[in-house]
Amino acid sequence: MGCFTFVKALMVMFNLLICLAGICVATVGIWATVYENSFMNILPPFNDKIWSHVNVGIFCICIGAVMTWLGMIGCCGAQKESKCLLIMFFSIVLIICIAEVAAAVVTLVYSSYAEIFLRLWAIPGLKEQYGKNQIFTNLWNSTMTTLQCCGFNNYTDFSGSYYYMQNGELYPPACCLGLELFPCDEDNADYSRVMGCFKRIVKNTKMNVNIVGGIAAGVTAIELAAMGVAMYLYCYLDKKET
Hints:
Elements: H1 2-34, H2 36-40, H3 56-79, H4 83-110, H5 114-128, H6 134-147, H7 162-166, H8 186-192, H9 197-207, H10 209-241
Helix pairs in contact: 1-3, 1-10, 3-4, 4-10
């Protein structure tokens, strides 16, 4: 009986955390919906295409609502000792696990298309929006400063751009070294050889692949543990009835 009580309390606490996480995700979704115009300005090349059919705020609200609902099912199932709710919780988590495995497989298969997708977003934006759209400019300035990179591929992404033409054919400061001595013109940018942001991201990702894998393994372990706890409670209650 002591073991059952402990597992029951563990199930309740775990699902309360899921509810809290769901509320947080839903809050982010509400924020994205309220400030939709500012959020969508970050992705100008796709505003009239892909993102016109995708509402990120509503998506986050839906995910948050599902997480909150799932947490309530697990919490109520454990607290009320309901076999129906417990098996429902187990089935939903099992479906989520299968969906995650399928998503991981699809990601591995189509990972080669990630560069193409990002290139379609980044390069037109750098040509047309950098220096003109303040939100887009701040986003890229922050990225280039933090990662110590320049453009998507390199400094040539800014050649002939709005920023380049409006600033006397100069490149952003992040594209050059030794700015205190020389302006960031083509010669200085070519000499500096600052790495493109996509290459820097790929390099950093490879360096931190163990951390990413550990997080994924941790999430999977939590889901399997939740399924195990739910099934234990279900079997205990089933045996108790017989």
